[in-house]
Amino acid sequence: MTADPFVPDAFTPPTTLVTDSFRLEPLGPRNNAADLAAWTSSIEHIRTTPGFPDGRWPPPDGMTPEANLADLTRHAADFAARRGFTFTVLDPADGDVIGCVYLYPTRSEEFDVSVQSWVRADHAELDTPLADAVSAWIDADWPWERQDRYGR
Questions:
Q1: Is-contact 43 62, C-beta < 8 A?
Q2: I need a labelling partner for 136 at 20 to 30 A (CA). Which of 24, 66, 73, 142 fits?
Q3: Could you tell me if residue 29 is inside a domain?
Q4: Residues contacting residue 60 through CB under 8 Å, at least 6 positions apart
């Protein structure tokens, strides 16, 4: 990582991406119960998703609601401070949490942004469409040119 800001000061980060299959909005504490239910229902599926091969997340034994809330609070603070941008992925039909997208600085000199995403196991068919839509969104609306998509 460099000392440069993650996004330029004059840049206004987008706060939504809408498709027929999903809607993204900034992740925050209000999503705690639904977020916790989403990822804990799909731990093994997420651990096999490109971008999560290191075995650190999600924790195999889950988290308490309080620990998950602290994590979501950290992500919201990162978004507000422009250090990283985490989005909840919602089902447009019912607003249920079906996944998550993370846009964070990368440690690699080869890339400008680390892009990770996951969906619940019962929405596995959206894994690649979500990753591809986010990549296109970054190309169109974000200031980065080189995405680390973790082999996608």
A1: yes
A2: 73
A3: yes
A4: 43
Check if the beta carbon of residue 69 is closer than 8 Å to that of residue 32.
yes
One digit per residue, the tens of pLDDT, for the chain of length 152 reads 446 789 999 999 999 999 999 999 999 999 999 999 999 999 999 999 988 867 678 888 889 999 999 999 999 999 999 999 999 999 999 999 999 999 999 988 999 999 999 999 999 999 999 999 999 999 999 999 999 998 88
CB neighbours (10 Å) of residue 103?
24
Domain containing 50 equals 17-148
Q: Which amino acid is present at 132?
A: D
HSE (side-chain half, CA atoms, 13 Å) at 121: 11
Task: Note if the pTM is more than 0.85.
Answer: yes
CA pair distance 144, 149, nearest whole angstrom: 13
CATH of the domain at 126: 3.40.630.30
Q: Is 96 exposed, middle or buried (0-12, 13-18, 19+ CB in 10 A)?
A: middle
